[in-house]
Design goal:
This protein is an alpha/beta fold. It contains 9 helices and 8 strands. It is about 35% helix and about 20% strand. Strand 1 and strand 2 form a beta hairpin. The chain starts with a helix and ends with a helix.
């Protein structure tokens, strides 16, 4: 299928911006370029949106809590991990996405500002995310939420972190999860897949060069990193039901769909789909790409069903 016309128009606008040279750019420079909201209009309205702090041993993580209109009391809770290659991304870059997901699911959303690489390489980000899930379960009642109705969600690197946290919760006897929403997740660092050959040249927002750059800053001195390369996890049984959404013109398409297939083979209920005509990041571009809204609604409906 050809590129979605709305995506095509957005890419044409992006083409006028300066190109990033991943051979020379530093994390600080990339954050300065990309760690601002896209600014495509007012974010979706919710009944409540407030910043809070997650106090952990030796550190405090920023977080933002969203409650949609009409949420149950107590409300189910989705713990959200933003994308950005483990290096960039903030609560603000994914504010509109979290608002839209709260509205679509009817659940409260807790967006987590985990520590970023390379200042805090693997496994610091994933350990932060797991600790934030434990904190959310312990403090759910304080947030007006139900600790028995928890899910995790994230896009790109956040999808990777959501998958890893689901595995950690199973293996560590952590909070019981009802669902994992994985939006074009990173699951491996194998860049020989067909979707990299087809879409990694830099024409569709995410490139092979940028993914090599992100991996190089996330994995520093850890050869195995099982919670980074979640696609190689030997046992995927006894994990929560999953939604896996990938994009046709995304280098990460094939690894996301392969992970969904492995979940299904392990007996996990999976709703997996490739969004035709879409690129990496489309889920958060819904204000400029209205056709993305249908995928947010699909993800929200799955969350609503499993968190009922």
């Amino acid at each position: 299928m050809p590129l979605n016309p709305q995506v095509e128009a957005l890419l044409a606008m992006m083409a006028a911006m300066p190109k990033t040279d991943y051979a020379t750019v530093t994390p600080a420079e990339l954050r300065a370029q990309l760690d601002t909201p896209m600014g495509f209009g007012e974010p979706p309205a919710v009944a409540e949106a407030r910043d809070l702090a997650i106090a952990l041993d030796g550190r405090t993580l920023p977080a933002r809590f969203y409650r949609p209109d009409g949420a149950a009391a107590p409300a189910p809770l989705v713990v959200f991990f933003h994308g950005g290659g483990w290096v960039i991304g903030t609560l603000d870059t994914h504010d509109a996405t979290c608002r839209a997901l709260a509205r679509a699911s009817g659940a409260a959303v807790l967006s987590v500002g985990y520590r970023l690489a390379p200042e805090h390489p693997y496994p610091a980000p994933v350990e932060d995310c797991y600790a934030a899930l434990e904190w959310a379960a312990a403090h759910a009642a304080d947030l007006g939420c139900d600790p028995a109705r928890l899910a995790v969600a994230g896009d790109s690197a956040g999808g990777n972190l959501s998958a890893a946290v689901s595995i950690m919760a199973r293996d560590r006897g952590g909070p019981a999860l009802r669902h994992q929403l994985l939006i074009y997740p990173v699951t491996d660092d194998d860049h020989s897949l067909p979707s990299y050959a087809e879409n990694g040249g830099g024409d569709y927002f995410l490139s092979t060069d940028s993914m090599n750059w992100f991996w190089g800053h996330y994995l520093i001195g850890d050869e195995e990193a099982p919670l980074a390369r979640v696609g190689r996890t030997p046992n995927l049984s006894a994990l929560p039901p999953a939604t896996v959404i990938t994009a046709e013109f995304d280098p990460l398409r094939d690894e996301g769909m392969a992970y969904a297939a492995r979940l299904a083979e392990a007996g996990i209920a999976v709703d997996a789909a490739i969004a035709p005509g879409m690129i990496h990041g489309f889920f958060s571009m819904f204000q400029a790409v209205p056709d993305a809204t249908a995928w947010i609604e699909r993800a929200g409906a799955n969350l609503k069903r499993d968190l009922a």
